[in-house]
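Researcher: Please predict.
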Amino acid sequence: MKKIEAIIRKSKYSEVKKALHAVNVNFFSYWDVTGQGHEKHGHVYRGVAYSTSDIQRRHLSIVVNDDFEEATIQAILKSASTGEIGDGKIFVSDITEAYRIRTGEQGGETLK
């Protein structure tokens, strides 16, 4: 099993969600996050300076069986990309075990 974490633009969330559903990844968690980017200068609006180094993003956490790893990553890459700096990152890590709390079931079957 793999855990795929993606940090994407909030504006791309709907497209990413649709792309994940299209490859049969129907369960994942997400939350809004704020991070620091490479851009260090701010913008001025009506005489007030605003920092643009704090970036609003959406963090997705997805656990899939190994055979869904590549399809999941490709779905995110294609749907989240704008071609601009700040499109986000994807991180992949191994999951050694999973348990379904309701039944005590364990392993990859818990993801179905």
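Model: The beta strands are 2-9, 29-36, 43-45, 48-50, 54-64, 88-94.
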